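quick one
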Amino acid sequence: MEPLRTDEIVTQLVSRSVRIAAPPVEAALAAMKRPRTMWTADDEPTVVGGGEAVAVEADGPARLTRVRETATALFADADFDGPEVAQPRFFGGLAFHEDATGRDPWTDFPAARFVVPEVQLVFDGDDAWVTLTVRDGDAESLADRLEDLSETFESLTETTPADPPGVVGRHRTTSLEAWHESVDAAVSRIRAGDLRKVVLAQALEVELEAAISVPDMLARLGTAYPDCHRFLVEPETGASFVGATPERLVSIRGKTVETGALAGTTGRGDTDDEDEWLAEELLASTKDNHEHELVAEAIREQLDPFCESIRVGERGIRKLATVQHLWTPIDATLEQDEHVLSVVEALHPTPAVGGLPPAEAFDVIRDTEPFDRGWYAAPVGWFDADGNGSFAVAIRSAVVNETLATLFAGVGLVADSDPDAEWDEVQLKYRPILDELED
Ligand SMILES: C=C(O[C@@H]1C=C(C(=O)O)C=C[C@H]1O)C(=O)O
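structure w/ ISJ:
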């Protein structure tokens, strides 16, 4: 189905929902037809989507405004009969750069694309809500199809996720020598004063021994990273974008905004003592605190025009299976109702993945990185008819396609960054995904 553009005449979305006994999440995902989406966050219901009732695409500087306007018009006219938890949502995301070119492996990922799944499954305790959405359909035929879908989902049984496929080849897009040159050049610019921070990334192409099962990979990531946002964006054909990110960009419910600053990284220790020592070192590190402070400050500044009040919590350590980060929780109260996409637009990219000043950092990223960031490090998430929604920063992620996976990882550079230490940090940040590929 062709995506809608902003200037198109809007069709009517018709949705109906039914409550069923919750099937196993990954089995439900495997039973869905492409395009597929999945979203799991620690403090939100898991949602799995399959098929496409409608898709909205846009590019250029106003891409999110155009998506928001089209979606708002669609929702205003929609016929939905069900509880709030089951209401249809748009899922998707955007490319890091607004004028993304969609170079390989990003050919199926435009500058911004959001989909209302034809079949949406929202997990709610022991139950799940199936919502079926069609364009210009009649409610009666939906009821029959919902019954069939319920039977299908309720008949699914738990399976053990398959083991990782194994890795037979690797190709780095950046050599250690090229990395040294890039980091040295960026650090010189920072020391000269025309840049305060820039995040440079690398990509790693991995050849797999067997075709990857995306639902199994997401299941394994759930075991290793239970408190991360796991996401899947899988267009109708081609590659899938998948990840388990610790970084929330923003979530909005009513006037409540939740976000946070995540920047500054170290490894995990082999013993409890070493782990604690590494955490203490990170908390005391001038370099990492400076890197972190720039992010927290920028988020606060970008939120300020929308908010009545902003609360910045205490800086602490966020421990993940492979790394630990400096983390500051930030929450806020909106002055008036705002669509989550407006706040996403204001926040992206934070200096946790871009840099400061943003325009100069963008130039350095474009001039330096020999690959297309595509949707890596960009917002991915969902929004509903009320403009509520939740977005994560798509790091600790990869594009996977049969026997090929492309992993991305980046690091924040400031005046006293060391190229070798930053190289090691990139390798550490590949681990969450690489561990699910290597056998
Ligand atoms: C850019 C990435 O991570 C970001 C950069 C961090 C850092 O430089 O310390 C830490 C967390 C993230 O905000 C990545 O994982 O690819």
